[in-house]
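Lecture 7 notes: from sequence to structure.
We start with the chain below.
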Amino acid sequence: MKKIVKIITSIIINVYVACSAFNYYWYSDFIPAKIGITYAIHIGGESHFREGCGAAIFRLSDATADAISRKGIDFFNDAIYSRKSKARRYTYSSWKETPVPNSWTSDGTWPGLDCSGASRSLLSQILLAASKKGSYYSSKDEAWIVVIPSFKLVVFSYFG
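Predicted C-alpha cells for the same chain:
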C-alpha cells in the first residue's frame, strides 16, 4: 500500500511540475525578448470553450530594471515583438508611460487581470503602480502588458 501511495504522489508531483513549466514557457513567449524576466510570480485565469482570460505576472530581471531606470521610455523603442513571433498578432503598440488610460481601469482592473486569481495585495500593488508615473504599458489584440520597474514586475494579461 505504501508503494502505491508513493507512486501516485510521484505522478502528481511530476504532472504539477510539468504543467508549471509549460505555463511559464507558454506565457513568457508573449513578453518581448528585450524585457528580461526571471520567474513567474503568478499565472492564472479562466478558460471557456473558445475564449479565456487571465494574467501571467513575472519578476523583472535586475539588468532590465537597471536599463529601464537609465533609459526610461526609450528602453522600449524596439520592444514591440513578443518572444513568440514577429507576426502582427504578436506585435505590441508603441509603449507609453503610466498612468494607464481610464478605460483600462473603469471596471476596477483591466481585462484579464480581474479573472487571474492573483491575490488582492498583488492586484492592489499593480493597480497602484499603473495609476501613477514610473511604469510603462503597451497592448495588442486582446492582450495588455505593464512593466513596473519599482516593484520589478511584468504583468501580461489577456481576454479573448
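Points to note: The CA atoms of residues 124 and 143 lie 20 Å apart. The chain has a mean pLDDT of 87.
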